[in-house]
Amino acid sequence: MRLTVIGAGYVGLTSALAFAVVGHDVVCVERDPVRLSRLLRREDPLGEPGVGELLGQTAVRFVETDPEIDRADVVLVAVGTPMRPDGHADLVQVDEVSRSIAFGARPGAVVAIRSTVPVGTCDRLQTGALLHQLVVSNPEFLREGHALQDTFVPTRIVAGGPSAARAVVEALYAPLRERPCGSGVAAAQVPLIWTTSRSAELAKYAANGFLATKLSFVNEIANLADVVGADAGAVLRTMALDPRIGAGHLRPGLGWGGSCFPKDTRALAALAAGEGYDFIVLRAAIEQNNRQLAQFALMIERETPTDASIGLLGLAFKAGTADTRESPALALAHRLARTGRRVNAYDPAIRSTSDTAISRVDPDALAACTDADAVVVATEWPEFAALDLRALRDVTRGDLLVDGRAVIDPVRAAAAGFRYRGVGGLPAG
Ligand code: UDX
Question: Which domain holds residue 116?
């Protein structure tokens, strides 16, 4: 099958590589010249496990524009849909790309929208710019840091659009639906849910909205546990053992971030509001997330002098990536810097930053925390759990250790001479 993938970000590049590995003929279009030249040198622009190796092994062709897009059976759209100031998704790139596909692709070709787009976008494209193609909503569910793995072994595939497109979409995914031996998943095949484009579009927002809401709920439970004198860890471990709840996304922290949850939750709330539907649970989840971070910042501000030096451990929005988009760690640094505090940081995946809230990025945790009045763990890197806390306490000026990711053992922290503040332990209200 001949495939043109438009956009070589996390979604586009990993899709292009996976479809090429399973035997499709893939061209990947990238308009950013810097990223394109890296791809032409077969260099990984994402820092995702396995991408560098696969770039060297597959025959994906990277181009600025695909002159043979008329040969494509499927055009896969994976361009950005960033957040507009009003919370809605910005569809400028999707619309622009759709116009060029309409111009180049053959009538009847399937155009699969992998980008996260508001409900109704595919219907609008189908009756507008892409009148002569078959528009299918086909969102992805990949996690950063596991992008290739999630593309090769997806938990599910959802696609929706005109029924004439169904057989093409099924043929496209057929090789990826066979579960590899030892994947540990009982089902013989990855489920493919064929539905309407509106349902597929909403399914993506629903999954991210639910996970974000789950995390906000978890953070509320952790805060409440502290208020009522319960052990949040024991409560959450008990919840995790209920298969209806599941063990994933149950770790409390200073809030959720990244390139998807903040953007998608706000877009979903804005979408609902635009239809006159008040999505109260989601609105509360977003508000709780803002409050969670604000409470951490307030607690640090109350317990340190205004000219304090803060050793910030972690800059990435989560462990396993160098991505700082909508990172709670950076949002916290901004609040602290605004009140006059100096923030020196260390992150295992980040060597430097142009972010003005960070005074310095150090090569290790001890350097970042030397003479610090407070140490703040803001990303759940496993190496922070294994820190030599006595050595850390030896270099800090103050004794405050704020564990915003529940990675440090409070007993060890106290034994090393720290005043430990965890995810509970926040001022109520
Ligand atoms: C998410 C979804 O998981 C993925 O399915 C979707 O396609 C894109 O958005 P990602 O943004 O890569 O993926 O990260 P994820 O692992 O979900 O974490 C998001 C945020 O939640 C991070 O800030 C992370 O630190 C936080 N988080 C996650 C927690 O605070 N606790 C947890 O238990 C899990």
Answer: 2-195
Spans of the chain, pLDDT less than 70: 179-187, 424-429
**pTM of the prediction?**
0.93
Q: Could you read off the pLDDT of 348-391 as tens digits, one per residue?
A: 999 999 999 999 999 999 999 999 999 999 999 999 999 999 99
Number of independent structural domains in the chain: 2
Q: Are residues 251 and 330 in the same domain?
A: yes
Q: How many CB atoms lie within 10 A of CB 18?
A: 22
Q: How far apart are CA 413 and CA 288, in angstroms?
A: 28
Is position 200 within any domain?
Answer: no
The pLDDT tens digits for 33-42 are: 999 999 999 9
Query: What does the alpha-carbon distance between residue 104 and residue 130 come to, in Å, rounded to a whole number?
Result: 11
Q: In this structure, is residue 273 part of a structural domain?
A: yes
Query: Residue 428 falls within a domain, yes or no?
Result: no
Cα 256 to averaged position of ligand 1 atoms, centre (Å): 7
User: Has 260 been annotated as catalytic?
Assistant: yes
| Ligand 1 centroid to residue 147 C-alpha, Å | 12
Q: Which residues line ligand 1 (CB under 6 A)?
A: 141-144, 208, 211, 215, 249-251, 253, 256-258, 260-261, 317-318
Helix axes 328-338, 280-303, angle to 10 degrees: 50
| 305 neighbors 372 (Cβ within 8 angstroms) | no
- CATH number of the domain enclosing 368: 3.40.50.720
pLDDT of residue 83: 87
Q: Which atom of ligand 1 is nearest to the CA of 317?
A: 23
Centre of ligand 1 from the C-alpha of residue 297, in Å: 21
